[in-house]
Design goal:
Low-confidence stretches: none
InterPro entries: D-amino_acid_oxidase_CS, DAO, FAD-dep_OxRdtase
Number of strands: 12
Shape: elongated
CATH superfamily of the largest domain: NAD(P)-binding Rossmann-like Domain
Family: Belongs to the DAMOX/DASOX family.
Radius of gyration: 20 Å
Keywords: FAD, Flavoprotein, Oxidoreductase, Peroxisome, Signal
Oligomer: single chain
Main location: other
Largest sheet: 6 strands, mixed
Helix content: 25-40%
Distance between the termini: 27 Å
CATH class of the largest domain: Alpha Beta
Strand content: 25-35%
Structural class: alpha/beta
Cofactor: FAD
CATH topology of the largest domain: Rossmann fold
Number of helices: 6
Number of domains: 2
Bound molecules: flavin-adenine dinucleotide, 2-acetamido-2-deoxy-beta-D-glucopyranose
């Protein structure tokens, strides 16, 4: 029977991990399970810049791979190829948990739950760094501007322009703060006066899943007779976009190792 893999989390990390698993392990079924989907994840708030540096308190680095280098190479290759916008043909099962997932339905679980990992997995090393941005309609802007302080920026995307940002460690507050919005808007208008004409201004708040380093490892959960291999991939902090493909590749490799163990359940017999 095909290995049944559940990926928990539908942010950038869960989705890219699901894609990478289905590409590297062709014979498996992948189900994405999440309580929120786009446009309601932290990943939807981000501007999506590739940031080569790290932030204080975050290594932004996964010990098992050169995640940023792999991600940058991958994205540059997509940018150079003609598939830039047509690379979304994978088919996944998608489900929304009602009462948690049934362990018997899956052979392997991959946890990509971002800041939700603090509660779900009980990992107290993960903490939020709150970020507030504005998403505005200003289609005449086609270049980015970044203030040297790194906090004020204007990043045009395909659909709208992201104006940022704040970094508030240990704040769980998902409500927009109108004073911060005004501050961001004023600073960005100082950088680019034409933003005064921006329309459809929306405020978005996200909690960066910060951790000293990304957690990228296997764990075997034991419950009675049943063993469930789990692969963790969370804690990308301020650099989820910058690292996503590298960490997805490493997570997929770990899933492959788990599958090998499933198919060889009695390693002791070899002794
Ligand atoms: C303002 C701001 C700007 C940013 N800018 C950049 C940038 O320019 N470049 C960059 O590289 N990074 C940036 N980041 C960081 C980036 O957004 C994050 O690193 C990335 O989004 C993390 O992705 P994720 O998939 O781990 O988390 P999320 O996007 O939060 O996804 C987690 C998923 O898990 C689900 N989930 C959580 N708990 C449970 C549960 N118990 N059960 C079921 N499902 C659950 C959620 O519903 C969600 O679908 C920015 C972040 C912010 C806030
Ligand atoms: C996003 O959240 C809003 C507000 O809670 C909700 O109405 C909407 O259905 C959600 N979208 C998705 C795709 O879950
Ligand atoms: C992409 O193209 C640029 C120049 O257009 C080139 O310098 C670079 O090496 C290419 N990268 C990849 C991964 O093909
Ligand atoms: C992305 O593609 C464009 C168009 O082919 C090219 O001009 C640009 O150099 C590429 N960027 C990178 C970083 O490779
Ligand atoms: C990973 O997610 C599953 C499904 O929600 C959960 O049962 C499990 O406890 C999580 N893993 C760990 C190590 O806690
Ligand atoms: C910004 O773009 C996203 C899609 O990427 C869209 O869902 C959202 O409504 C847009 N917001 C504004 C203010 O235009
Ligand atoms: C916003 O600023 C005003 C004036 O400085 C202050 O009175 C108010 O409490 C602030 N609001 C928030 C939500 O911080």
């Amino acid at each position: 029977m095909l290995p049944r893999i559940a990926v928990i989390g539908a942010g950038l990390i869960g989705l890219s991990t699901a894609v990478c698993i289905s590409e590297t392990i062709p014979r498996c079924s992948v189900t994405i399970i999440s309580d929120e989907f786009t446009p309601n994840t932290t990943s939807d708030v981000a501007a999506g810049m590739l940031i080569p540096h790290t932030y204080p308190g975050e290594l932004n680095f996964c010990l098992a791979c050169s995640c940023k280098v792999q991600t940058f190479d991958y994205l540059f290759a997509i940018n150079n190829s003609s598939e830039a916008l047509s690379n979304c043909q994978e088919v996944f099962h998608i489900s929304i948990p009602q009462t948690g997932i049934n362990r018997n339905d899956y052979d392997i679980v991959v946890n990509c739950t971002g800041i939700g990992s603090r509660e779900l997995i009980g990992d107290l090393k993960i903490y939020p760094v709150r970020g507030q941005v504005l998403k505005v309609h200003a289609p005449w802007l086609n270049h980015f501007i970044r203030d040297p302080d790194g906090l004020s920026y204007i990043y045009p995307g395909i659909h709208n322009v992201t104006l940022g940002e704040t970094r508030e460690k240990d704040s769980w507050n998902l409500s927009p703060d109108p004073n911060i919005s005004k501050d961001i808007f004023d600073k960005c208008c100082a950088l680019e006066p034409s933003l005064q004409k921006a329309q459809d201004i929306k405020v978005r708040v996200g909690l960066r899943p910060a951790r000293l380093a990304v957690r990228l490892q296997k764990e075997i959960l034991v419950q009675g007779e049943k063993k469930l291999p789990v692969v963790h991939n969370y804690g990308h902090g301020s650099g989820g976009f910058s690292m996503h493909w590298g960490t997805a590749k490493e997570a997929a490799r770990l899933v492959g190792e788990c599958i090998a163990t499933l198919q060889d359940p009695l390693p002791k017999a070899k002794l």
